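Morning, I've got a small favour to ask if you have a moment. I've been staring at a protein lately and its backbone has me curious. You're getting the sequence in one-letter code plus the fold written as tokens. I've dropped the whole record in just underneath, so have a look:
=====
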Amino acid sequence: MKRINNIFEKIYEIENLKLAHQNAQKNKKNYSEVKKINKNEEIYLAKLQQMLIEKTFKNSEYKIFKKIDKGKEREIYKLPYFPDRILHHAILQILEPIWKKTLIKNTYQSIKGRGIHKAMKNVKKSIDELKENRIYCLKMDVQKYYPSIDNQILKQVIRKKIKDKNILWLLDEIIDSTTGVPIGNYLSQYFGNLYLSEFDHWIMEIKKQKHYFRYCDDLVILSHNKDELHDLLKEIKTFLNEKLHLKLKSNYQIFPINKRKLDFLGFRFDEKNIFLRKSIAKSFKRKIIDVRKLKNPLNSIASYWGWFKYIDDKQLWNIQLENIQ
């Protein structure tokens, strides 16, 4: 693999910093810290540029708060808008095209041109290819993924593609700012993609698992061979533990999808159809109730069509809309 060098200057070029500032403030223009930077944009961006040229940048202190997400309590780490969040955008604008080339096609989170709906279509395509015989699914996810990422291993992963010492200094400063990868950093989701990349290649290229899909730390493998999946699961546990110091959650399962639907990415799949995840359907029903009570406008349910348009049974959508007309 060719390693990239001499691109640090691209990160601190003023045009890249301006674009990073524009991108970082999307949907945040009314924030006081954003308004402060916008009043003196040239001064602040020149200051950030100087920090990088002189290598005086230091990761700011995190504000840590807890948030309930999908019924789970998570620690969220927040950095100041300046200089950190602008800088993270500036870094990714340059490095994302380089890093993306190292990732398998079947990993999807926070990657331009991919995402949930592309993943859904590819899962459905695999099911269609396999459905002549019984399809088994190995479904698993990593235990406390982001906090469990080993900083030293992550830095080694990054060095497999990047050899520019200045960029490595900058990324090390960010990585070493806390133990593990903090949920909330703009760079964290890409670090999460990179950290499991060797595992992805091993699964698809060494273990020859064509029907493998990953969204962050949610992992799915489809196969005709149940026994093969059980054997593979043992190897996966060993690989993750020895190579990446990770463990699977204990809720991993192997099951035929004609008897139990595959719940993945907000959808439920069987061998013929795609359904909506029950929690999303319930959320839609609650939103409809608020619309009926005039607590929310009708256009507040528009985002749900992004889910419904991909499923086979749209009866729930049609019935609920009829009830509010």
Observations:
- The two ends are 59 Å apart (CA to CA).
